[in-house]
Specification:
Rossmann fold, alpha/beta, about 55% helix, 5-stranded parallel beta sheet, Helicase, Ruva Protein, domain 3, about 260 residues, P-loop_NTPase, two-stranded antiparallel ribbon, 2 domains
């Protein structure tokens, strides 16, 4: 019997399963989405979405690309990774995301990217580039795109350390959108909603267990989800009826031993 069956859950409550990802809008996520809507709605050219490891930055960008409704404009969101080693690799990735017939040739890729954006702009469609893990190399290319078309908005996802270099290469003053770690109320809401969404009892984790999970994760979304998942696994193994602080402490001890 799997742990989600033990807890009478319809499926795994945390993370991506078979391509499906539930999204929880904590305070920082709601504020970030509001600022992204402002960015696009006011035809601002570029914004930086800044969040460190475990902040939920990648899941937020995926959510925005699939589910956010934009008011006052027709927007074509394009989600793409900024992880690349060369300009040619980046342009190939971007042309593949934007164009029906991507090409490996750098000059052809750039031309097709520009042609696709221009064709969309003639229909008053804004292209919104959502670039996760943006690099300085990517920022230089994005700068050229936003300077040639007012129908392009770029959102560059990065950590705090990378932000300064991106700003220098983009030029101007991009809108800064921070993703701070969650407060306890957000962590509690995330855990309870995640359990309820898969048919479980929202009180499966008692209050003290949630507080301890929040403390251990420091409000980092990805870390919180992983610890909660391990707690369910450990609780099922000990045939518990509820997740308590003792179960959470036990998985912490096991993780420390494994890391030693």
């Amino acid at each position: 019997m799997s742990y989600h069956e033990y807890w009478r859950l319809q499926r795994l409550p945390f993370g991506q399963v078979n391509g499906r990802e539930d999204f929880y809008e904590g305070t920082s996520q709601r504020e970030a989405i509001a600022r992204l809507r402002f960015l696009v709605g006011n035809a601002r050219s570029v914004g930086l979405l800044i969040g460190g490891t475990g902040s939920g930055r990648s899941s937020l960008l995926r959510h925005v690309s699939r589910n956010v409704l934009w008011s006052g404009a027709i927007v074509e969101p394009v989600l793409i990774s900024g992880r690349c080693d060369t300009q040619a690799e980046w342009l190939h990735q971007l042309s593949g995301a934007l164009c029906a017939d991507p090409t490996l040739h750098t000059s052809d890729a750039w031309r097709r990217i520009c042609d696709t954006i221009d064709a969309a702009s003639r229909q008053d469609v804004f292209t919104c580039l959502l670039v996760d893990d943006a690099t300085n190399l990517v920022a230089e290319s994005v700068s050229a795109l936003i300077n040639r078309s007012r129908h392009v908005t770029a959102v560059l996802g990065c950590n705090t350390e990378a932000a300064g270099g991106l700003v220098h290469r983009i030029g101007g003053c991009p809108l800064r959108i921070d993703l701070p770690h969650w407060a306890l109320s957000d962590s509690a809401g995330f855990i309870r909603q995640s359990i309820a969404d898969v048919g479980g009892d929202p009180e499966l984790f008692n209050d003290a267990a949630i507080v301890r999970l929040h403390e251990l994760s420091e409000g980092r979304v990805a870390t919180l989800a992983r610890l909660a998942e391990l707690s369910l696994l450990a609780g099922a193994g000990s045939r518990a009826t509820q997740i308590t602080p003792e179960i959470v402490e036990a998985i912490q001890d096991e993780m420390l031993v494994a890391a030693a």
